[in-house]
Amino acid sequence: MPRTDExxxxxREPVIPAAVQGILETFWANxxxxxxxxGSLRDELxxxxxxxxxxxxxxxxxxxxxxxxxxxxxxxxxTVDVRAGGETYQVTTFRTDHDYGDHRRxxxxxxxxxxxxxxxxxxxxxxxxxxxxxxxPGGGRAGRAALVDPFGGALDVERRLLRAVxxxxxxxxxxxxxxxxxxxxxxxxxFAIEPATLAAITDRAALVEHLSGERIGAELGRLLGARRxxxxxxxxxxxxxxDRVSPELAAQRGIAQNKVPGEDLWDHTLRAVDAAxxxxxxxxxxxxxxxxxxxxxxxxxxxxxHERVGADVARAxxxxxxxxxxxxxxxxxxxxxxxxxxxxxxxxxxxxRFIGKVGRDMLDELFELRMADNAGSGLPPDVGIAExxxxxxxxxxxxxxxxxxxxxxxGDDLIEELGVERGPAIGxxxxxxxxxxxxxxxxxxxxxxxxxAATLVEDES
Length: 461
Ligand code: ATP
Ligand code: MG
Description:
Bound molecules: adenosine-5'-triphosphate, magnesium ion
Strand content: 5-15%
Helix content: 40-55%
Distance between the termini: 86 Å
Strand order of the largest sheet: 3-4-5-2-1-8-9
Structural class: alpha+beta
Radius of gyration: 28 Å
Mean pLDDT: 93
Number of strands: 11
Low-confidence stretches: 1-7
């Protein structure tokens, strides 16, 4: 195996945090091989801010725990969490993978003794580089620390290329997630996928059907954190991965939109996702699915009711990729509400009703989504919302009642003061009181509301 002892032209020694260097030194001093590996080393070589430094060693897990007081087993695959300099680092014993029975992760792992075999099981050449040294039996390291780069990963870093380690088709057959990781990394690193690797993805895209929704969802989440997720999403669509990940989104391709000339619904979605703030993952996700109901409602050319249909389609998709319930609820609500149409003629009461309907917590995300949607349509982002935003803020600042919790009376008052029976009537009465208070905030006083409620109780009985 080639070992690069001298940094080649254009390449340099990686800069490793002192705490990580300290962990390496401890391994070496005790006669073990130890290296930094994976995404953090890759990022450092690219010149991106590296985080989550991972280490690999020939020391077995029990030995790692012995060498580092306070270290704990992370999982049954030989990963140990080591604390140093106030941070936790994952240290993994060299592995050789076996048994890819069903296009997913291997069923069991075997420990290895060589960094080269550990690197050979990794997905892309840029992720299959290590920096470190072997140990010597008497303690101390064998030679100076150096890059171990058997697959030409450093050159691919320079060329900004994602290339599968080994034979791409075989590697994607072993674990189909690597294809999704490929398009995800293309977006987050802003790298191209090497042609043979991309051809193999296109060829084997259907294997994605064997993956669990969780693993797909996790990579999708990372993809959406990219500066321009459209880079990865487009690769997904063009390679056929999207047909398996979300046929609902794949169906957006070729659906005409009279927004940006020459662009279809899928192009609109991608523009919207890129325009949504990277720091607001819920808004990014909502932008991805905001028009997911359009293909099913395209028949009349107007996508009538697409936000209602879309809410259900989005829910089904997000459940399939196992997003947390709170995330699904929020995204579905954003899809459901994204078609609001403000007009300057709205009364203050209409603005308050809007706030009450959307919910105070969600307003900001809904506006962010609309701005992304506007940008996706080639419009200035705050078209149709700049004034609404201002008027909403005015109402919020006035501290008027906007939801049932703001009313001067609650369900207990209805029960105790008016003898209403516990049950759905309580909610109905409070809802009607809220309508009145939203129209006229001055009504929000206990005696007034009890008096109004008394007349409503009559209606209920
Ligand atoms: P990021 O910087 O976004 O974390 P990463 O490449 O570090 O990207 P991780 O999921 O943290 O991604 O994985 C760490 C390393 O483990 C990768 O760099 C790669 O070497 C290896 N790896 C992860 N998943 C796979 C896989 N499915 N098949 C082969 N190797 C993998
Ligand atoms: Mg990582």
